[in-house]
From TrEMBL:
Keywords: Glycosyltransferase, Transferase. Residues 1-168 form the Glycosyltransferase subfamily 4-like N-terminal domain. This is Glycosyltransferase. It comes from the Bacteria. It comes from Labedella phragmitis. Pfam families: Glyco_trans_4_4 (PF13579), Glycos_transf_1 (PF00534). GO terms for molecular function: glycosyltransferase activity. Residues 182-342 form the Glycosyl transferase family domain. InterPro entries: Glyco_trans_1, Glyco_trans_4-like_N.
Amino acid sequence: MNVVVLHQARALAALGHSVEILTRRSSPDVPSDRTLDDGLVLRFLDAGPAHPLAKGEHESVIDEFSARLDDLGPYDVLHSHHWFSGMAALPVARRRGIPHVQSFHSIAADPTTPLSEGERPESPGRLAGEARLAQESDAIVAISVAEGHTVADRLGGDADRIIVVPPGVDAELFHPWTGSRRGSGYVVAAARLQPLKGLDLAIEAVAAVPADIRPDLVVAGEASTDFEGYVDELRALADERGIAETVHFIGPQSRPDLAALLRESRLVLVPSHSETYGLVALEASASGVPVIASASGGLREAVVDGETGIVLDSRDPSDWGDALARVLRDPDLAGRLAVAGRVRAEALSWPESAAALSACYRALVGDRTEDDAP
């Protein structure tokens, strides 16, 4: 979500819009605002304690964030990128008579329904809050067709107000490796370390690859504060499967470091239980690396099965191990997937994504102006 927000904001500013990114102050050391580009300002609002909060604790500071937001502006459009921010921004937009746009990036499932592991509401008000935002916002911007269907089916959003704006990718930063790869190399799983991302399956899949071609597994990402002990569980699983020495947890990576990590890998694994899109899959394609992904949500759109990677409608480690082995043993197949992935990624840019957002905003502002005309 952070990557999408930042890159779309920068591209909108480049189009001539004045853009402000508003977020909660989580450290006393950050300034009140920071200019990122011409026309783009990042503002830190005082809402709750000036230190990081677990995701489930943010609900308690919604009202305070809303009050700080109401001191700012004027704005033509408020676009929220999480249900917390949406619940803070929607009443401000209504008081000011301006459009409110909502993006979710992830949507909670009702805990009474059968769920994949890890897909749970993080705080008590989430289910009702997301439904209200889907039904009352002037537009919903979904990152994939799959997410758009979820907004309509799960949250009751009006399909006529749902607009799909796919993400872009920085094809200059994420570019193919030009060197030679030796030996089995390594594969990458890059995600926040929490059960929803299915990193246990990544470990099981690599363990299922025949030993003579088995690559190392590099796990990149920050541990989630909501799931203490999860990293220890993953380490224990690697030990049980006899690959502890070749599974490497390297923590969160800067964007340049992630790009270098991806381009030098043999494959990228995205075994998430649920994804609204799966941006890392597109970044891997831009890096000229095949992707093996689960058939969940927007990953079916981020990865073209058989063309830019392999999409598996299975969570059986042996199926994943077979798919890994097939690509690792067949350099021609790996090359075809890599080239097609790069070509597709080059056609998806952040300026194109921002242009679609701009069109959405202009339509809403135009509609609101006409509605308010005497």
